[in-house]
Prior knowledge:
Structural class: alpha/beta
CATH architecture of the largest domain: 3-Layer(aba) Sandwich
Shape: globular
CATH topology of the largest domain: Rossmann fold
Number of helices: 10
Order of helices and strands: EHEEEHEHEHEHHEHEEHEHEHE
Number of domains: 2
Helix content: 25-40%
Radius of gyration: 18 Å
Distance between the termini: 24 Å
Amino acid sequence: MLAIVTDSTSDISKDLAAKHKIHVVPQHVIWGKENLLDGIEIDADTFYERLTRESIPPQTSAPAPGDFTRAYQASREAVNADEVLCLTLSKKLSVTYTSAVQGAEHVPFKVTVLDTGTASLGLGILVLLAAKLRDKGASSTEIVAELQRHLPNIRVYFVVATLEYLHRGGRIGRAKHLVGSALNIKPILHLSGGEIRPKESVRTHNKALSRLLDIAFEECGNRKMSAIGVMHGQAPDEARYLMERLQQHFEPENLYLSHICAAVGVHTGPRIVGISYDLTEN
């Protein structure tokens, strides 16, 4: 048996995590003198409401190695596992991967830590795939090999209301040159090579949403999609619109809707909306 661990930037709901026996290690949201556990001491709705009214900007801190050590032990005991697989967000976006590796040095059983090079439901889709393979009886070696096959094919595209938060948090990557662009220009960003990069820019928010769909239609073509995710931070109407269009067009095996967690929202700001999918051929 294999225990599966990830961090809260995977944006997997509590219900999905419980259903698939996935242990989620919370990131830390630092707000003034408060140190809040992401998804435990502050949920997404509370975070975004507070973000829009408070003058003090929040920050994030990755889980400590000890947090992962405890998670490995607890997850292993919970499912009576022999070993643990931990999937983290891109190491170019956070030191979470390093903490996860260091945490594995303090347990007397095998832990495999995988840098997925992605985040949000891009990471979440991979974690759920790992759980599905485990439940079908695949070995840890087989699961890691299959995940490695999927990693290059995970896509994450998103639109933010403003680049201010990405710029302030130092997560803007190769989209830095877009800061200061005209207010009516809405950049479509994506995760590529483990960092945030610009895909293209359009005028108006509605056109950006339509372009997100067009990108998915163009990239995916007529293939049968196993997993598609829609994620948002304080943008439920836009997320529902994307969900309906994607469901109608693809009828995917799994269609996930997720709130973008506080730890990601610190760096993206409110009213973010995005899509994620896996282009791997079955």
